[in-house]
Amino acid sequence: MADATNLEPQDAAAAEDDRSDLESLSGKASHSSLDSLELERLELAHDLWLLTWRGVLCISPKRGSAKRVLDLGTGTGVWAMDFADEQIGTTVIGVDLSPT
User: Fold this and answer.
1) Which of 69, 91, 70, 80 is nearest to 42 (CA)?
2) Predicted confidence band at 33 (pLDDT cuts at 50, 70, 90)?
3) What is the DSSP-derived secondary structure letter of residue 67?
4) Mean pLDDT of 36-44
5) How many CA atoms lie within 13 A of 41 on its CB side?
6) Quick count: other Cβ atoms within 10 Å of Cβ 84?
7) Are 79 and 58 contacting, i.e. CB atoms less than 8 angstroms apart?
8) Do residues 46 and 52 touch, judged by C-beta distance below 8 A?
9) How, if at all, do strands 68-72 and 91-95 pair?
C-alpha cells in the first residue's frame, strides 16, 4: 500500500479504505501503518530473541536441510533476511499485512 501523503486525493481515500478493510478483518487496529517507534520495537524484540537463543535463528531440527521457509507475520523482515543469509540455498518468503 502506498503512503497516503504522496497520493492524489482520490487515491488517498482508496488507501484509507484499504487500511480500514484490514483493520475490520481482525476486529481491531492492525499494524498496517507501522510508525518508526513500532519498527524500532520489532527490531529490538528480534535482537532480544537472538540474545535469548544465543544467536540461533531457528531451533527446528530441519533447519539445515530446509529448502523453503515461510515466515508468516514477518514484520520488518529482519528474521527472514538474517535466516536467508545464514542458510545459503534456502528460499525464504516473508509475508505480512504491512507493506514495510
Assistant:
1) 80
2) low
3) S
4) 91
5) 6
6) 19
7) no
8) no
9) parallel
How many residues are present in the chain?
100
Give backbone dihedrals phi and psi of 19, rounded to 5 degrees, phi first: -65, -40
Distances (CA, A) of 83 to 2, 65, 90: 27, 13, 9
The three-class DSSP label of residue 7 is: coil
Dump the DSSP string for the chain. Answer: ---GGGS-HHHHHHHHHHHHHHHHHHTS--STT--HHHHHHHHHHHHHHHHHTTT-S---TTTTT-SEEEEET-TTSHHHHHHHHHSTT-EEEEE-SS--
C-alpha cell at 2: 502506498
Residue 33 CB partners (closer than 8 Å, separation 6+): 19, 98
What are the residues facing 70 on neighbouring strands? 93
